[in-house]
Amino acid sequence: MPIPTAHEYAIWPKDRTVTVSDGTPIAYTVVGDGPKTPILFVNGWTCSDAYWAGIGPGMVDDGHPTIFMDTRGHGESGLPRDPGFLARKLRSEDVSTERLARDVLEVIDDLGLERVALSGHSLGVQIIVEACRLAPDRVAALMPVAGTFENPVRTFADIGIFDRVYPVADILLGVFPFAFLKPFNKPIANPDVGVKLVRLIRVAGPKVTAEGLAPHLKQIVELDFSVLFKMMGQQRKHESADFLPRIAAPTLILAGRKDLFTPPSVQQKMADSIPDSEIVWFEEGGHMLPIEEPEGIVEAMRDFMARRVEAEAPAQEKSGWA
User: Fold this and answer.
1) In a 3-state reduction of DSSP, which class is residue 321?
2) Would you state the pLDDT for residue 154?
3) What is the pLDDT, as a whole number, of residue 43?
4) 104, 40 in Cβ contact below 8 A?
5) pLDDT band of 201, cuts 50, 70, 90
6) 250 phi, psi to nearest 5 deg
7) What is the distance between the alpha carbons of residues 28 and 36, in angstroms, rounded to a whole number?
8) Within 13 Å and on the Cβ side, how many CA atoms surround 156?
9) What is the mean pLDDT of the segment spanning 54-74?
10) Which pLDDT tens digit goes with each residue over 135-157?
11) Which of 57, 46, 45 is nearest to 11 (CA)?
12) In sequence order, what are the residues at sequence separation of 6 or more whose Cβ sits closer than 8 angstroms to the Cβ of residue 260?
C-alpha cells in the first residue's frame, strides 16, 4: 500500500498513477516538455528520487522530458496486495527483477511513448537492463549509474563470500520482525546522524551532504524491510551477463572508482560486454554517485545523448506524449 508521508519528502511529488498488469499502483511524474528524447529515471533499493535532484533539472534544461517513478514498495507506489506480517502474503514474482522492469515498461505505455532513454542507479541498473531485455525496441539508450547488471550480492566489494552466506541470512531476515523496529529507527532520519553512518560503512564519500541524503533517510524509516529483503532475494537470483553482448541500445556507464557496493570490476565488465558502450569514471565517486557527482553526470549525459541518440533519432521518435 502507498506510504502516506512519501508525497511530503519527494523531490518531485508523484501526480500520476498507473495500475499495472498485476494490480499494483505505480506512482510517477513527468517534468519538462522539451523536444528531445524522454529520459526515465529508476531509483535504487530503498532510494527516493532525491538521487536525481541534481541530475533531472540539468537534463530538463537540455530539452529532455524526464520521468520519475517510485519503485513498487517504495515512496508513493504500492504493492499488489497487503504484504502481511513478515511480507508472507507476497509471492516471489511480485518483487522479481522482471516484474520491476515490467512496471517501467507499463509506465512508458501509460504515457503513450514509443521509446525512451533509461537511467538507473544501484538496483535500478538491474531493472533497466531487464527492461531492455524484455522490450529492446522501446529503449533509446541505457545510462547505468553506480549499479550492477545482475546479482549485487555476489560482487559486493569483490568478495564472493557474501553470496555464499546469503542463504543463511535470508532465512534469518525472513523471520525478523522489522516492523517492530520502526519506533527505534527515527534517529536514522536525522541527516547529520545518517550521513555519518553511511560514511562509516563506506557507502558514501566526502561529497555526500546531510541535506542531499535527508529525503532518502526519511523514506528508509517508513519502508517495510520485510518486503525489501524479499525483493533483494529476488535481485540475487537475477542473471543477465549473457544478454549484455546483445544490447543494441547506445549505453553510457557512469561509475565510481571508490564504489564498494558495485566495485569498478563490475562496471568495467559491463562496459566490456556491451557493444560500443562508453564508460565515464569518477575517481573519487562511491556508490552514492548521483548525489556525489551530479554536475559531472549531467555533463556526460548531455554529451552522450547529443552524440549517440539525438543525432540519429528521427524527429517522430521524440514525441508521442499521452
Assistant:
1) coil
2) 61
3) 97
4) yes
5) low
6) -55, 135
7) 20
8) 15
9) 97
10) 999 999 999 999 999 866 665 54
11) 57
12) 156, 157, 202, 203, 286, 287
Q: What is the pLDDT of residues 235-262, one digit of tens each?
A: 888 899 999 999 999 999 999 999 988 9
The pLDDT confidence band at residue 61, using thresholds 50, 70 and 90, is very high
Average pLDDT over the chain reads: 86
Looking only at the bridges linking them, the beta strands covering 16-19 and 25-31 are antiparallel
What cell numbers appear for 319 in the block?
Answer: 514525441
Cβ within 8 Å of residue 133, ≥6 positions away:
101, 240, 243
One-letter amino acid of 283: E
Residue of 86, 70, 92, 108 whose CA lies nearest to 22: 92
Q: How far apart are CA 142 and CA 65, in angstroms?
A: 16
Which residues have C-beta within 8 Å of that of residue 11, sequence separation ≥ 6? 48, 49, 50, 52, 53, 56, 68, 215
Based on DSSP, count helices (H) and strands (E) in the chain, helices before strands: 11, 8
Domain boundaries of the chain, sorted by first residue? 6-318
3-class state of residue 194 by DSSP: helix
Which position has the grid cell 531492455? 132
- Alpha carbon distance 248, 149 (integer Å): 15
Question: Could you tell me if residue 266 is left (phi over 0), alpha (psi between -120 and 50 degrees) or otherwise beta?
Answer: alpha
- Rg (alpha carbons) of the chain, rounded to whole number: 18
CB burial string 215-250: b at 16+ within 10 A, e below:
bbbbbbbbbbbbbbbbbbbbbbebebeebbeebebb
Beta strands in the chain (DSSP E): 16-19, 25-31, 39-42, 66-69, 116-121, 139-145, 252-256, 278-282
CA angle 29, 33, 34 (to 5 degrees): 135
What pTM was computed for the model? Answer: 0.87
The three three-digit cell numbers of residue 81, written as one number: 496486495
Query: 6-318: which CATH topology?
Result: Rossmann fold (3.40.50)
Grid cell 553482448 in the structure block, residue: 245
